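Supplementary notes for students who missed Thursday's class. We covered one full example, reproduced here. Read the sequence, then the structure, then the short commentary at the end.
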Amino acid sequence: MFLPEQITNWPLTSYIYTIPYLLLGIVVLILYKNQIFKGVPISHYKTNLFVCILFLLFFGLRWHIMTDTLAYEEEYYTFTTNFNWEYIEVHSWWWDKGFVIFAMLCKLITPDFFFFVFANTLVDIILFALCLKKFDINIPIAIFAFLAFQGILMEINTMRNIKAVLLFVYSISYIEDRKLFKFLLINFVGFTFHSSALLFFPMYWILGKKYNIKILFIAMSIITFIYLANINILQNYLMSLALSDDNVSVAKFTQYLSESDEQTLSLGFIERLLTLFLIMRVYKKLGKSSQNLIVANAFFVFYVLYAIFGFNFVFRDRIPYLFVFSYWLIYPYLFDYYGKKRMLFKAAFIFLFIGKIFLSTHICSAYYETVLFHETTRAQRQYLNDRFNN
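Structure (token representation):
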């Protein structure tokens, strides 16, 4: 436990910051241990409900963790419940219209900002549960993969994006069934929560195809080379755009481009390359299931977009991570396929999941506190974010 009055001396990274998140993952591991390690097909209704409630309390009752609640709180308190289109338009300069309307609906119930945070989490958990019901997968591993692969950060730090992502995941069944109107309708709702969801619309025609494995290998090799060579053509283009105009959108680009870069050779790169290898090795088998094929193709899209946008933390979190759900849905298949041969593979996957949780939450801005019992102030949490980001 770190003392708030000594916050200027807190380390930027520490294993202590990650303990609550690791405990959450360990609880999931214990609750589903028979299915995870023994493959026992038992009913999990009560366990699933308990996990949903646990997630709701853990994420929904959080204090100011990372940046989103700090950034959104002041804007939320400026809203009234004046439901007319002109008012919504005025307040959509930052938040997208669907999110503005959702915030106004929450404010009809109570003006308390942390009720709004709780309501956001409730919606996300309901959407996530509905998505999992649509997939014939190992649900415990899907939940664990969610925690390991950006699910924690998306739930805490991208309150708008995650709704667009989950709505797209829900609409995957409409790609399978070739129901274009329903697909477009669901994703239009997602688009009203975050405009980056526009990228999902062409996926109706992209993700459902089975691609030639040799062409995929060549394409992924080229993309990997571009990433390793640090060829940031897009970054140079965006910077020239930012210097040529001064409108609000370009101002946002300029701010985003000023954010820190990511190291090219990193544990994250090794993990992505390993996942790519594991998927391509079984791609033909994945193609026998339209669900698995769509998810595998979504991972390829993620891999390509990461190579293009990974040069910048802000772009990375908002564009490639739109497709990070592919991890949540493909790792259950990989876990079952490789794990049925050797228990060692299952242990390796679990170790990977725990390691990913640790690496994503061992930063000072992730220090967990609940809104019910917090010792730090809002200003101190802002200091932690500023200190880590700078």
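Commentary. The chain has a mean pLDDT of 89. The CA atoms of residues 18 and 361 lie 5 Å apart. If anything here is unclear, bring it to office hours.
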